[in-house]
Specification:
Blueprint: H1 12-21, E1 32-36, H2 43-55, E2 59-65, H3 75-83, E3 88-93, E4 101-108, E5 111-124, E6 141-145, H4 153-166, E7 181-187, E8 192-203, E9 211-216, E10 220-229, H5 233-239, E11 254-256, E12 262-264, H6 288-313
Parallel strand pairs: 1-2, 1-3, 6-7
Antiparallel strand pairs: 3-4, 4-5, 5-10, 7-8, 8-9, 8-10, 11-12
GO cellular component, one term: nucleolus
Main location: nucleus
Organism: Glossina morsitans morsitans (Savannah tsetse fly)
Amino acid sequence: MSLLRIRKPKTRKGKQVLLARESQLVENARFMLLLEGRKCGGDVKLYMKDLQQLRKPLVKVLSRNNDISPFEDPSSLEFLVQKNDCALFAFGSTSKKRPDNLVLGRIFENEILDMVELGIKQYKALSYFKIDKIGTCVKPCLVFNGPKWSQTDELRRLRNLLTDTFQKDKIEAIRLQGIEHVISFTCTEDMTILMRSYKILLKKSGQRTPRIELMEIGPSADFSIRRSKIASEDFYKMSRKQPKELKVTKKKNISHDELGNTHGRIHLGKQNLDKIQTRRVKGLKKTSEQKHDSRQKKKELLKAAAKEMLTNKE
């Protein structure tokens, strides 16, 4: 297929579909495509099933097996992701050379931006934990433990990719009672990624702030990094570019405090206090009580002055 080909819609519905696929000022929530390779079973099969539960409702699943090799020829994978209108994908497969193989990636401009191949060393599914689970639409809180996440470009991109994988939609405010689920990722010294999922319990502490306890609810997985394909700096910078309409321009002389109040600073010229007219200002008018007191003071001063004049004459 030629890269210069321009698709023209033939129907009204087709035009709406093509317009929805174009870049928007405010992008919708990202959908994730789950698909399996020639063979898929064991722990990777269970992980794909649990990942579907964690990503609901922003997930699409292909039930048929696909003869795809993402690192050798990603064209068919890019076609399926574009056809299903998804921005993320998870490809699960298993073989003798790479057992329990999981490939996580994301798409930009119909091309693979980042792609990381993980091997599942140990896995405990959601069904392993016989306790109450989290609701479907609860947004998880993501925690990345360890200093290694910011040491190499590969781990930095993997952290960003995991954030996109488990993030559902953006939120502007956080309520303490609404934080119920936390997913923790720990990078050990031997480059093993430990994924743990907990339920947040708010206990009474005798104070205003509650005591927080974590209860593991699954899934629990240990990953090893096998292969990775990250985008170049120019392509990655292009994917993060924001439109000019959404950039917030900084306003001068306006600040915000910790409580969210807005404070403004006004610059005035030099004022001559001698020429300010204060009599006609309503805010500076005397009340009736003040006028009565001033009259009484004047009368007392006149009486005192009259007594002094009489004493001087005598």
